[in-house]
UniProtKB/TrEMBL annotation:
This is RNA helicase. Residues 285-423 form the Helicase C-terminal domain. The lineage of its organism: Archaea, Thermoproteota, Thermoprotei, Sulfolobales, Sulfolobaceae. Residues 30-180 form the Helicase ATP-binding domain. It comes from the Archaea. One of its GO terms (molecular function) is RNA binding.
Length: 667
């Protein structure tokens, strides 16, 4: 199919024309595909490389007989690109799959947009592979094994930037089967030459991770798990201060608030440390890539004075650095700006005072080391960079914005309003989505589960979830509110990163109290006299009022019994639970009982109805227990877990009612 046919298709399906430079690059790729099978294309962020990828798929569809796989690094990008482009242009010929689903592959769709993990699971061979963000593929074993095993006839990768060192990381097996890659590199200058109508973005945005070291990570995890005790609002403020501004600002605030927070070895270790904070280390990393001599004058914003002065110490060897804060007089501020414009200052570090009233149109690089909660403050910061003098069109007119964010914290969540402001101001944010994926607090929950061997009881993540008793009555009467971590756990479940089941030992003891309450309504004799205390009799009264049914449906009450595990470990967990089921069945051999479990959908989760019938001393009890599984959709997992809980409750029930020598065994 010709390029003209593709341009017509784009016009019909997307409602716009391809640009001349996009047509030119498509023609270059097609020309190279006549002799080359391995091509790497680099194009600047915001120049529309997705349209080129569509063009390549359109061209390859006439050259290959089977499938064309489009690899995206994240499920978020799979969804975004599939709905915005691939589905609209190619209709039913294209499918999208991630998280291990294979339906589109099994249906034989001509084009499938997918992640490397899912593709490797679902496919043995691929005729052609198009890789978005191809820089991920070099040096990443997951990508490399997928690409090598699929043995494609054609491999075409796209990226905004391919660092030179990445070229040396290409798997030799790919080179052996496909030949040396052909590199087609286009920067803003070359695109402007190809197409004079090409419009440069006002600015390009980038994100850098401010990674914690081990000491910092230990303190943040202590905050995250609720191990730092004290006034609730104060603890929350200190947590935010720590991950947003670093240890200098944190320790300054902590010393000011002594008495409102309990002493902690985690805090002492951080405040005794002489190392640079994670924010200062990230700033040095940024300036090692965006070199001061190439981008000066550089503007750096932080909201805390102590952090600003730490930054000054951290980068003093990289150029002439000056700090302005609220302590600086108006005269001092004006003098600093004049010196900066004359080239006597390379880097200006500013707190809130510099967010308005100071115009530095000469600035090429703005680094935000925190994201202001106020949209207005973010807008004012942004204005220091991009509302300056208009320059002649060309590469030099592009300005750069770098935001440093702390992974596995809420800083990544706070970026949404900021991104919206960037977009409205003409700043290109098209590739920030990929960088944000899996970087917020959900990643912290996943990380804790991973470090705990792949599954963890929720009270090991959240210290506030520890229970002093396992009383059914207290569970039914509980009205616990949400803790600081509940929202993150819920999002981890909704995002499909983790699943859970209720701990069968704990829940078994809870449900066994339902059986005992039923028994105490109709039992008799020595066992009844010794066993049926006031608590079990009260449970029995509740069962009479509820017609033999107990509902365990309060999300807050059920949370402490949740055992979280990574979604990727589902098959291992199912095997483990199946083995436990067999063990329990053997232990219950010779007992007179029956169990039925029915699972139905309810809201965003599932409802398990457990019908238990058990006979002891000629007394038969048959209560019904309903258990809610919030944010779970795997019916097999829920049914198996509910069955094991029922078996565990029966084992407890028979132990408590066994009267071998006239004594009740209450172990």
């Amino acid at each position: 199919m010709s390029l003209g046919d593709f341009n017509k298709l784009v016009r019909e399906k997307l409602g716009f024309e391809t640009y001349p430079y996009q047509k030119h690059i498509s023609e270059e790729i097609e020309k190279n595909l006549d002799t080359k099978r391995f091509i790497i294309v680099s194009m600047p962020t915001g120049s529309g490389k997705t349209l080129i990828e569509l063009s390549v798929a359109h061209y390859l569809s006439s050259k290959v007989s089977n499938n064309i796989i489009v690899l995206e690094p994240t499920r978020l990008l799979c969804d975004q690109m599939y709905h915005r482009f691939w589905k609209r242009v190619f209709g039913n010929d294209v499918g999208v799959e991630y998280e291990g689903n294979c339906e589109s592959f099994e249906q034989g769709r001509k084009i499938v947009v997918s992640t490397p993990f899912t593709t490797a699971k679902c496919l043995d061979r691929a005729d052609a592979i198009i890789i978005d963000e191809v820089h991920h593929a070099f040096g990443d074993a997951r990508y490399e094994e997928t690409l090598v095993n699929l043995e494609p006839r054609f491999l075409i990768g796209f990226t905004a930037l391919l660092p030179s060192y990445k070229k040396y990381l290409i798997d030799s097996r790919l080179v052996k089967s496909l030949g040396q890659p052909e590199y087609l590199a286009y920067d803003f200058k070359s695109l402007s030459k190809i197409d004079p109508s090409f419009k440069l973005p006002k600015a390009i945005a980038d994100i850098f991770d401010s990674e914690f070291n081990n000491l910092e990570d230990s303190l943040y995890e202590a905050f995250f798990k609720g191990l730092i005790k004290g006034n609730k609002e104060t603890v929350k403020f200190l947590e935010l201060t720590f991950y947003t501004y670093g240890k200098e600002a944190f320790c300054e605030s902590y010393r000011r608030l002594i008495g409102k927070v309990e002493e902690s070895p985690y805090i002492d270790s951080i405040c005794d440390s002489k190392d640079l904070s994670h924010k200062a280390r990230a700033l040095r990393s940024v300036l090692n890539i965006y070199r001061v001599e190439e981008f000066k004058p550089v503007l750096i914003f932080t909201s805390r004075k102590s952090t600003a002065y730490e930054f000054e110490r951290a980068i003093s060897d990289l150029g002439k650095v000056k700090v302005i804060t609220g302590d600086s007089s108006r005269y001092e501020r004006l003098k600093v700006v004049q010196n900066l414009r004359r080239g006597e200052i390379d880097v200006l570090i500013s707190t809130i005072v510099g967010e308005e009233g100071i115009d530095i149109p000469e600035a090429k690089l703005l680094i935000m080391t925190d994201v202001p909660q106020s949209a207005l403050r973010f807008y004012q910061r942004l204005g220091r960079l991009i509302r300056g003098k208009e320059k002649d069109e060309g590469e030099s007119s592009i300005k750069y914005l770098v935001v440093t964010l702390t992974p596995k914290t809420s800083e990544y969540d706070n970026l949404d309003d900021a991104l919206r402001n960037l977009y409205l101001e003409g700043v290109d944010v098209s590739y920030l989505i990929e960088k944000r994926e899996d970087k917020g607090p959900v990643a912290r929950v996943v990380d804790i589960i991973s470090k705990s061997g792949g599954q963890v009881l929720i009270n090991q993540i959240d210290d506030t979830k520890k229970r002093s008793s396992l009383s059914l009555l207290s569970l039914l009467e509980s009205s616990e509110g949400k803790s600081h971590i509940d929202e993150y756990v819920d999002r981890t479940l909704r995002d499909g990163k983790a699943l859970y089941y209720y701990d069968d030992e704990i829940m078994g003891k809870i449900v066994s109290q339902v059986l005992l309450g039923s028994y105490c309504n109709i039992g008799f004799g020595e066992t009844y006299m010794k066993l049926c205390n006031s608590e079990y009799k009260k449970i029995g009264e509740i069962l009479l009022r509820k017609k033999g049914s107990i509902k365990l449906d309060k999300k807050s009450s059920l949370r402490p019994f949740m055992k979280l595990f990574l979604s990727s470990n589902l098959s291992e967990i199912m095997k483990e639970l199946s083995e436990k089921k067999s063990e329990f069945e053997k232990e219950l051999e010779g007992r007179e009982f029956s169990v039925e479990v029915h699972v139905s959908k309810i809201g965003n989760g599932l409802l398990a109805q457990i019908l238990i019938s058990a006979t002891v001393d000629s007394v038969t009890v048959n209560p019904k227990i309903q258990i809610n599984y919030y944010d779970l959709k795997d019916e097999k997992l829920v049914k198996l877990n509910s069955l094991i809980i029922a078996y565990s409750s029966l084992i407890n029930f028979y132990k408590l009612t066994f009267t071998g020598n006239g004594k009740v065994n209450s172990k």
